[in-house]
Design a protein that fits this description.
Helix 2 crosses helix 3. The chain has five helices and four strands. It folds into two domains: about 40 residues, Arc Repressor Mutant, subunit A, CATH 1.10.10; about 80 residues, Lrp/AsnC effector binding domain/regulation of amino acid metabolism (RAM) domain (Alpha-Beta Plaits). The longest helix has 13 residues. The chain has a four-stranded antiparallel β-sheet, with helices on one face. By secondary structure, the chain is α+β, with helices and mostly antiparallel strands. The chain starts with 7 loop residues before the first helix and ends in a 24-residue tail after the last strand. About 35% of the residues lie in helices and about 15% in strands.
Length: about 160
């Protein structure tokens, strides 16, 4: 799949929308010096290309006792992508990152109870072929969290970068 091309106008549009996704097309057009139709068309193309999406971001407070949990995974080097895809297929997992260091995969999820974290980490992830070790950690207090940078939503698909 080819990477969609974006130009300076697309970048400016994305920047404005990232600051306030509810801003009107008319206001964007006036600020960027283009027509409303241009803005509407650009937004539609950016959405179709999967470069932007609009969603409501809920705070952790929405869950009764939801806690952000991290599951660090050591997997066979030659099976990292395969293991990452298998982890991403788990409905309870919200994000999967291929990393460098002691662990080569980190999974993120929201859990209401520690039993749920044990079930995901030990009963599901640790049983995946190629996984050697998992370690979990759970956030007990959030000091800073930028939902624009690290939005936690259900996974759509793994995007591979070559």
């Amino acid at each position: 799949m080819a990477t969609p091309l974006i130009d300076t106008l697309d970048e400016q549009l994305i920047d404005l929308l990232s600051r306030d996704a509810r801003v009107s097309n008319r206001k964007i057009a006036a600020e960027l010096g283009v027509t409303e139709g241009t803005v509407r068309g650009r937004i539609k193309r950016l959405q179709q290309d999967g470069l932007i999406a609009f969603t409501a971001i809920t705070g952790f407070e929405m869950g009764k006792r939801a806690r952000l949990a991290f599951i660090n995974v050591q997997a066979d080097v030659d099976k990292v992508r395969e293991v990452a895809r298998a982890i991403a297929d788990l409905a309870q997992v919200n994000a999967v990152l291929i990393t460098m260091g002691q662990f080569n995969i980190t999974a993120m999820c929201l859990v209401d109870e520690l039993d749920a974290l044990v079930e995901i980490a030990s009963d599901r992830i640790l049983t995946i072929s190629g996984v050697h070790h998992v370690e979990t950690s759970i956030a007990v207090k959030t000091v800073k969290y930028n939902a624009r940078m690290a939005k936690i939503t259900p996974p759509e698909e793994i995007v591979e970068e070559d």
